[in-house]
């Protein structure tokens, strides 16, 4: 855990009650563990190359494993990579409202975006999701 101490210290946003509630609700709806990774780009024009470096250079994996430690989860390493080397990365700039709509779509069934779907029909009503 010593090698992840610095990474864990930079993940203080995970302790925020609103973030914790959102992640917990998302895990319930999707019946899956949810990880909130933190990535910053210096410039919009560099976003895709910096994101590719974040994924390929191990920073994504370090944040992922640090969150496993924080959640006290068991993680059985399986053969293969966490992210395939030839992963396709796409980017789209979202307005403030579009960001909220995307996050809400993770929790609801009544969304027009249809980014995800709850495999066990545990979606929240839209009014309840809007409060989270």
Order of helices and strands: HHHHHH
Integer-rounded radius of gyration? 16 Å
Poorly predicted segments: none
Please state the structural category: mainly alpha
Helix content: 40-55%
Tell me what the structure shows.
By secondary structure, this protein is mainly alpha-helical. It has 6 helices and no strands. It has helices spanning 5-9, 17-30, 47-56, 59-70, 96-105, 126-130. The model has no long low-confidence stretch (mean pLDDT 76).
How is the topology of this model organized?
Blueprint (H helix, E strand, L loop, with lengths): L4 H5 L7 H14 L16 H10 L2 H12 L25 H10 L20 H5 L2
Main attributes?
132 residues, mainly alpha, globular
Task: Describe, in short, the structure shown.
The chain is mostly helical. It has helices at 5-9, 17-30, 47-56, 59-70, 96-105, 126-130. The longest helix has 14 residues, at 17-30.
